[in-house]
Amino acid sequence: MDELTATHRAMGKGSVPAGEAYTIELRRRYEAQIDDVWDAITSPERLRRWLRPVTGDLRLGGKFELGGGEHGEILRCEPPRLLKVSWLYGPDADAWPGTSEVEVRLVPGPTGDTEVELIHAAVVGEPLFPTYGPGAGGVGWDLHLLALARLLAGGETADHEAVQKSPEGREFIRRSAAAWGEAHLAAGGEPEHVAAAVEATTKFYAPDPT
């Protein structure tokens, strides 16, 4: 649960090529050197251990695909401080280019640590938002940043399915969804919509056991 409080979450406004966007923003510090963190977010061998297996042309302008169906193009790559990609999901998403982007910024700290800021921008009108709010992507990123923390701390490879089925993982998801609800409220969300979105997000990521 300490991992939840290690992350600062916010919802904001931005833009993507397709137009006005909303953003989910996560920021946290890792006790690891910036080159180590950069390697963890760009090396295929390490990416698969906290995110998903990745294939493609992994260079500026190249296209990539993750094992879960997420795919896109590498838009900016400035080692070891900035990585920006387009971020689409599912085969139908290719009909709507420029609707979603993820940017990761790394800043070295004074004691050999590294601050990581992840900003996921999605076009306003994105179909999942009315139901799930910022937790649609926010809870998933929380789970992945938790896995990244474990990798950087000791080299542990994430088992996302096991985490989401465990009592501790389900509680992490519940609290993550609530935290994104608080970020949504702070950004001006209507309380009734926020409450419904938090409930829907929690049930999506941690459905009741059958």
TrEMBL record:
Cited SUPFAM superfamilies: Bet v1-like (SSF55961)
Q: What is the name of this protein?
A: Activator of Hsp90 ATPase homologue 1/2-like C-terminal domain-containing protein
The UniProt record lists the Activator of Hsp90 ATPase homologue 1/2-like C-terminal domain at 32-152
One Pfam annotation reads AHSA1
From which domain of life does this come? Bacteria
Q: Which organism is it from?
A: Nonomuraea deserti
TM segments?
Answer: none
Query: Which family does the UniProt entry place this protein in?
Result: Belongs to the AHA1 family.
